[in-house]
Amino acid sequence: MGKSILIMRTVCVLGMVAMVALLGVILGCARPDAPETTPQPSTPVTQSTDQNMPRPRTPPEEEGVQAVAELVAEELKAPWALDFTPDGRIFITEKEGNIRVFANGELQDAPYLVIKEVAPEGEGGLLGLTVDPNFASNGLFYVYYSYKEASGALSNRVVRWRDTGQTAVNPTVILDGIPGDRIHNGGRLKFGPDGKLYVTIGDAASRILAQDISSLAGKILRINSDGAIPADNPIPGSPVYSYGHRNPQGLAWHPETGDLFATEHGPVGHDEVNLIVPGGNYGWPEVGGDETGEGFIPPVLHSGIETWAPSGAAFYDGDVMPAHWQGRLLFAALRGQRIVWVDFQEPDYQHVQRENSIFVRLHGRIRDVVLGPDGHLYFLTNNLDGRGRPREGDDLLLRIAPVAGVLSLHIP
Ligand SMILES: [Ca+2]
Predict the structure, then answer these.
(1) Among the four residues 59, 135, 200, 269, which has the most C-beta atoms within 10 Å?
(2) How high is the pLDDT of residue 372?
(3) Verdict on whether the full-model pTM lies above 0.90
């Protein structure tokens, strides 16, 4: 990236700080609220305001500037997922089939691993990645990707690899034959607090399969790290943990209750946040949004006629951000070009108290949000996935910091 961009970002942020001091309001630097076809300036900016609020419920004293996004790495190509290793590296998937590594303060130029079998077609490709909870001793991590069957049909699989420090070896397929398509491949992989591996699967453009518990399509799965089916799964002998999903792409567990929440793409708007219970039926394609039906679990939040196109999700559980961020759910929005946040009501944290967004249209499409071991949230832009408008330096890995950190803002 050119120095001009660095300077402009810094100037923009510092300018904003000055404005905040002067006016108590953010007035500039945000991108214009432009239609999708309007060209935008190519300079990403790093200031957030809690703007664009369809349901403003946050007390004014908590509004305004809360967070900035610091640049960590750039020139990623359509990254989809990231995770942290206990030795301080960040693994990042790129949709075309590369795993990139951020280590020792910089993104390594050469891919850490190239998975040639990946078929990056439509929404498919190298998608989810998660590091094994026992990575420090076993070096294992897991990826989810699309590939082509001999027939030419697209399928998805979960493959486990072992890290050597320089690359990865011993690929082992632990879950195969996941229905795939050019759309709706799901793809998120996360270990739950129970040590089980959860996998989100889209309906692969065959909506009826979401209600068919014998199909893996339109499901959230729960498996052991070797691919075996846990004995305590809700449907005996099945990896299916919940069903009736359209295209779920985000998973996060509440840090206090351990409840699982999942984000899901709706058909036209009506994107959902669901509280996932074992064996639950979340309604697709029979119902969506506020529609109800016997046996269907409604979302805890949906986007109405607005489109978020939600992807990766994380709860905030750290001491870097302001105290009221604790227990806040944040998730990436692609078409919505923002990070949406949701606070839940005490004492069970199962109902939405308020929701809002940050970074609205500041960085373009956002694919994943993950809590780092340093207490910062990290997120990936997704402007090179064929549906965005790339700017210089895209795609980016960014890190969320409180606004008080602006004066010591570090831009590599
Ligand atoms: Ca639903």
Answers:
(1) 200
(2) 98
(3) no
